[in-house]
Design brief:
- The protein has a three-stranded antiparallel β-sheet. Strands 1-7 form a two-stranded antiparallel sheet. Strands 5-6 form a two-stranded antiparallel sheet.
- The longest helix is centred in the last third of the chain and has 37 residues.
- It is elongated, with a radius of gyration of 34 Å.
- The protein folds into three domains: 166 residues, Winged helix-like DNA-binding domain superfamily/Winged helix DNA-binding domain (Arc Repressor Mutant, subunit A, Orthogonal Bundle); 54 residues, no CATH class; 123 residues, no CATH class.
- The protein is of the alpha+beta class.
- α1 packs across α5 and α4 packs across α5.
- A hairpin with a 5-residue loop joins β9 and β10.
- 49% of the residues lie in helices and 13% in strands.
């Protein structure tokens, strides 16, 4: 059932406090949110409903109707036990309508759940607002709605959620988390992978990923473009983590010249590739240059030849400069009279333009 996109409810953040009496399961979270969206306009804090209505609206029907009802009633009772709602029902809840009231005190800023774990202080308090558009994105999936809501809360306080925290909030295994997020990325989830850096020991580490909810109104175009960008960045980050050449790791320009197929390779990147001992850099650069030579664009192959010539000239120039410096050092140590009189000749000599070339324009 779709909700009015402008309708807004509030969810207490203690619902995410894993390991405490307030932590909700994904089914409880979906049910609690649904009951708020369905509350009567004349009674802002209560909902008049039935088990059959809940099953129908949330799409919980299976072949076993008795089990469906027992599951819903069980989740309702859990929400009562955890202090989120109260229920007024006179008779068998399976058969009659009843009233669900929201416990407003649990949304109070005075309610704070705080505990220490792995040396970190965890604090859950206040509430997060969910609008109808966000609710509809979840498509009646409690885990999806918990993900959307937790991202909204954490982004509001500029907090990046690591995988180790996601598995606790959603109470699922890491492999299940990855499967779920891969599904959500097709529907509403954007994941921007954190940058790589070197710690004090010189080891490569990655910053925590950032998460965001995409605008589904333009998903047909924007989501595909963003997803492709994330995929490309993710692939390059994985390559960067395998690089052992310090120059390539620290210089983004050189890194992109060697690893990114859409970045032109210049002499700076070509020189590093020729002289590196890193097998990853060597293999990727070779693959890129081979592709340029095999390209139907003849200019691409000529660029490779030009870079090779420039590198050979660079090596020769370095060698001659080194020889010249050695001779100068010897002169300083032994005296000019003890040194041969030959002077350093640079590898590149400007060629004078023939007179005929310079005066051709006069013949016109």
């Amino acid at each position: 059932m779709k909700m009015n996109e402008k309708f807004i409810i509030t969810v207490p953040n203690v619902a995410f406090a894993w390991g405490t009496q307030y932590h909700m399961t994904e089914d409880e979270f979906m049910l609690y949110s649904h009951l708020q969206f369905m509350r009567q306009s004349s009674q802002w804090n209560q909902t008049f409903t039935s088990v059959d209505m809940i099953i129908q609206y949330l799409g919980l029907e299976t072949k076993n109707k008795h089990r469906d009802k027992e599951k819903v009633i069980g989740n309702l009772k859990k929400l009562v036990e955890k202090g989120y709602i109260t229920i007024d029902c006179e008779g068998d809840m399976k058969k009659i309508f009843f009233v669900v009231k929201q416990v407003q005190e649990i949304l109070s800023t005075k309610l704070v759940v705080e505990f220490e774990e792995d040396g970190k202080n965890r604090k859950f308090m206040g509430f997060t607002k969910i609008n109808g558009e966000q609710y509809n994105l979840a498509n009646n999936e409690g885990r999806a709605l918990m993900t959307i809501t937790y991202i909204s809360w954490r982004n509001n306080i500029n907090y990046k959620v690591p995988k180790s925290e996601w598995v606790k909030v959603l109470a699922i295994a890491k492999s299940t988390l990855e499967d779920s997020f891969n599904d959500y990325k097709k529907r509403f989830l954007m994941i921007l992978e954190g940058n790589h850096y070197h710690n004090e020991q010189g080891q490569i580490r990655q910053e925590t990923n950032s998460h965001a909810i995409s605008d589904m109104k333009s998903k047909s175009v924007n989501l595909e473009v963003k997803a492709e960008k994330v995929k490309s960045e993710s692939y390059l980050d994985k390559l960067r983590s395998k690089v052992t050449d310090i120059t390539v790791m620290r210089d983004d320009e050189i890194f992109m010249q060697i690893f990114d197929k859409n970045t032109f390779i210049k002499f700076k990147g070509f020189k590093v590739w020729k002289e590196t001992n890193c097998p990853i850099v060597k293999a990727s650069g070779q693959k890129k240059l081979d592709a340029m030579r095999a390209s139907e664009n003849l200019i691409a192959g000529e660029v490779v030849d030009k870079l090779e010539r420039e590198h050979q000239e660079h090596l020769l120039n370095q060698k001659q400069q080194s020889k010249s410096m050695e001779q100068q050092m010897l002169r300083l140590n032994m005296g000019d009279e003890c040194m041969p009189s030959d002077e350093f000749i640079p590898s590149y000599i400007m060629k004078e333009k023939p007179v005929s070339d310079m005066t051709d324009f006069l013949d016109d």
